[in-house]
Amino acid sequence: MDSGSSLVWFPCTQRYACKSCNFVNVNPTNISTFIPRSSSSSKIVGCKNPKCRWIFPSVQCSNCPKNSTICSEFCPPYIIQYGSGSTTGLLLSETLIFPEKSVDNFVIGCSIVSFWQPSGIAGFGRGPESLPVQMGLKRFSYCLVSHRFDDEPVSSDLVLISGGGATASRGGATNYTVYTPFRKNPPSSNPAFQDYYYVTLRKITVGGVNVKAPYKFLVADSDGNGGTIVDSGTTFTFMENQVFELVSKQFEKQVGKNYSRAVNVEKQSGLRPCFNISGEKLLTLPQLSFHFKGGAKMDLPLADYFSFLDDSVICMTIVANDGGKGGVGPGPAIILGNYQQQNFYMEYDLENQRLGFHKQLCK
């Protein structure tokens, strides 16, 4: 599931092809696919269907009579670009059946070709085509297990709440859950920005020291550049280079007093800063914290922002994005990725337009 995009799609037809999809436990020549003709409720979305405009707001149905609602022309093929990879296909209308609810005329993506995306994505973003919006959910939540289980069949619950009940019972909001309001999406010229869950990040602290990130990076401008989003589909947290350097240098300053830099590992891995900890039995590093509007504070567990690359070296698992060449944009300046959401209960309260979270061992 991906809270940074909205379309729900999966591999489709016997001709489905996935390029650059040689991942662990994935055989790109033997990916399970959905066969539309095997479903009695499946039909291609037409060009005149209002839901076609969810993906193509300015679609021109050139082969349809201007004043007629009857048209045999299909909605154009979609192309969805992700931070890594892409997919293309046709929109279908289907009936989705869940344990406690079925949804008719649910728009899904029937992908024919994908790059770096083998198995499909359930879009949980803010767009009208997302699963939460089409299902009319009031909130949803998840708790991501540790990345150390990446190569094992380990999963955790995704809770969907539409009114009187939820599709899973374990986990949930507690007295320990803290909340920060979602920001209204800026009227950006980039339609992808309308999918994002923007939040207001007040400050970032390392060992209690405010790194003093400039305001223009913490709050998005009128075109959606800058600001902070929460994205379950992004692996490591991304920061614009200027913010990253402030965080990185503060760790170098505080940790460098006790440990030497592993420069060679930094060059090989692309991660930094890295430190040599050979022979250490007890490791103590500064606390990394995100402070949000409303007083919500996310104190990250050490494993969420530093990882062992071998027995003697640890590296920070936050990465720089210099898309703005030292400035702001294009797009969000900070993306809170799933590596930094490990072992957190994460609640998207759509009814009250707020994000909730608390530490929790996910299982």
Automatic annotation (TrEMBL):
Keywords carried by this UniProt record: Aspartyl protease, Glycoprotein, Hydrolase, Protease
Molecular functions (GO terms): aspartic-type endopeptidase activity
Domain Peptidase A1: 1-358
Top-level taxon of origin: Eukaryota
CDD domains: pepsin_A_like_plant
EC number assigned by the record: 3.4.23.12
GO cellular component: extracellular region
Record-given protein name: Aspartyl protease
Organism of provenance: Handroanthus impetiginosus
Source species taxonomy: Eukaryota, Viridiplantae, Streptophyta, Embryophyta, Tracheophyta
